Amino acid sequence: MVFRFANIIDYFLLFQIYFRLFSVLIERFLQFIDFKGLKLAQVERDLGFSNGYLGKQRDRKGSIGSNAIEKIVSAYPDINVYWLVTGEGEMLVDTSSTLKNVFIKCPVCEDKERLIKLLEDFIENQKITIKSQERTIKSLDTGYKQTSSG
Q1: Rounded to whole angstroms, how far apart are CA atoms 62 and 50?
Q2: Which helix (H) or strand (E) holds 77?
Q3: Where on the phi/psi map is residue 87: left (φ > 0), alpha (ψ -120 to 50), or beta?
Q4: For a Cys staple, 14 with which of 2, 45, 79, 115, CB 3.0–4.6 Å?
């Protein structure tokens, strides 16, 4: 498989999408905390985050990863995962419909799957390049040994 320049652009765009989505997600979670009347410090403790983590991420326009999202969804089963990720729909769900909520296919998931596929392709291309370079090194090394011994 030949690595094309267009794939680099795809990787870059997908990383931008990923970062943008997860940085907006923190704003939504902070909205949820405010709506529920929860104390930020207590939420951070409950989720196992360091003191000030959520505020720092918000102030830096940072993002939170999938591990944090899993903790949030586990701790707050009434939060609508689809709303948290996309901003669409209602903030809260009936806790009896939480399982239904988790299995909704969302655009973010599709982007994530596309990013994973592109990264897997990139890794395969890197493996091919490494093998080629190893063959070149071996060939040069053999040639060097023959020249220096002869």
Answers
A1: 15
A2: none
A3: left
A4: 115
pTM check: above 0.85: no
Structure tokens at 78: 């009434």
Task: Enter the DSSP assignment of 97.
Answer: G
What are the tens digits of pLDDT across the range 123-146?
888 888 899 999 999 988 888 788
pLDDT of the residue at 98:
46
Whole-angstrom Cα distance, residue 59 to residue 86?
21
Residue with token string 């983590």 = 53
CA distance 55 to 1: 45
Query: Is 27 in a helix, a strand, or coil?
Result: helix
Q: Give strand pairing partners of 79.
A: 92
Helix, strand, coil abundance in the chain, percent, nearest 5: 75, 0, 25
Provide Rg for the chain, Cα atoms.
23
Alpha helices, DSSP H, located in 37-106: 40-47, 53-59, 66-75, 81-86, 98-102
Strand-pair partners of 92: 79
CA torsion sign for 102, 104, 108, 111 is: positive
